[in-house]
Amino acid sequence: MANRSPQPEPPRSSFAIVRSIPTRWMDNDHYGHVNNVTYYSYFDTAVNGWLIEATGTDIRTLPSIGIVAETSCRFLKELSFPEIIEVGLALERLGRSSVVYNIALFRAGEADAAATGRFVHVYVDAATREVVPVPDGIRAALGSLPAATGIQQ
Amino acid sequence: MANRSPQPEPPRSSFAIVRSIPTRWMDNDHYGHVNNVTYYSYFDTAVNGWLIEATGTDIRTLPSIGIVAETSCRFLKELSFPEIIEVGLALERLGRSSVVYNIALFRAGEADAAATGRFVHVYVDAATREVVPVPDGIRAALGSLPAATGIQQ
Amino acid sequence: MANRSPQPEPPRSSFAIVRSIPTRWMDNDHYGHVNNVTYYSYFDTAVNGWLIEATGTDIRTLPSIGIVAETSCRFLKELSFPEIIEVGLALERLGRSSVVYNIALFRAGEADAAATGRFVHVYVDAATREVVPVPDGIRAALGSLPAATGIQQ
Amino acid sequence: MANRSPQPEPPRSSFAIVRSIPTRWMDNDHYGHVNNVTYYSYFDTAVNGWLIEATGTDIRTLPSIGIVAETSCRFLKELSFPEIIEVGLALERLGRSSVVYNIALFRAGEADAAATGRFVHVYVDAATREVVPVPDGIRAALGSLPAATGIQQ
Fold this sequence. Notes:
The structure is a homotetramer.
Chain A: E1 17-22, H1 36-55, E2 64-75, E3 84-94, E4 98-106, E5 115-125, H2 136-142
Antiparallel strand pairs in A: 1-3, 2-5, 3-4, 4-5
């Protein structure tokens, strides 16, 4: 398959941070599995949910906000309703203005990922949408987010 | 920004096939722009809608169906409700079992993309989900889908 | 069927205002038809899209905004991807602070509704969320929105 | 407010069955609260999730399936991301072919509902979509679903 940007496939044990998201009835599409689009909703719910908890702040009210600059996903196994997805979250790279997360989705009790992806936030001024440095509070929280172990960056 | 897989950014004129999708009220998220997840819904609506028209067939009822193996998107401009998105669709690669599409989203009347992405279908047996060759009818239709002009593959 | 609040079922010709919304691939759920939840997205896209056009204003930036207080829908026919839904919009009642819309969804070329519903906006102060009168600009626009003809209110 | 079909507002203690659904980042719309459409996704996730558990069956594979004939919702409080919604589920009426559920959404720890609604399933033949009796297995499960206490039907 055309795969110009091979992504590592870390097992569940590579992720120190794992968040649970239950699927919803309407996540399933015509083919009886979770629609590909919806996987990205698990990504952005996990990233933003973790950020809110880790910073203890409603990040949406900060003067600088993270907007999504790039995402990707490889779909390895079907998901369905009902089930509880475990979302592994790891830091790939913390830049001046951007944060790159590694993400993997796991079905309950499985070591091999059902999907792997990357999620890139770029921080911008909430009003002007000019690119700005990652806010200090976010940067501090990211200091506590480990990289996925066993991944060749 | 972390960009390990640079994708070309073809202008609107590179796409022979352009499909229109209006945004919806609920596409906008907390930040007052179309949520990143929803861009992928424009991708899969454009690809599948084109396939249904180009084949003259309800592709969902074929013995072999295309399931999504990989997608990616770079978000270049904000979109919002209400507006009509023009989705450029081009063939990057037609393999034995897989099809890779280049996709770009344009705001009405703009030459530069608001987002660019890739969308990979792999064909599987509808019942067993074993990988199979791209069905003849789909392959024939794809013969009429040009590559985006001016893109270095 | 349990139907304590019988709603009229006006034909397409009862609606002076009709707006088009194409379905999306992911609108279809496990049963191969548009999921019930998504019908309400057609409702709120039609109402808010009409309000933005009719007022010539981005209603989201006004000091008073319409938030949804009540909706209902009766599902009469299945919808699917791909198709273009025609959304009939009519004024049932304009109160001091609230607006009640009659809505009906039609499949292209059909006189009988695929769904009928009601949609109630209550206007609130955008900051405090206290109930306020319908803003003048909105009230003026609603003056141009006819009731559905042939409906017994 | 225009309210032709007053619905009771049972407290959380009226519901013997309560299911938890966490909100997602993209549930919030332009106004920074959960979009009205999404409330109905909580409804149909709760009903179908309960049915699958209570019957011990993947109800989607039965020869008769429940399709949604009518829903309604009154929106009483704003919801947001992140939070865990508690969905109270009760039986209002079990007919020959239809089932009417009372539903209420509660914010964690609150006794008063954030939304109340009704959800009506009609059972149809999965192939022909002709109305059929409620399947025995579903009917048996519904025997264990109490009505909301303290509601005047």
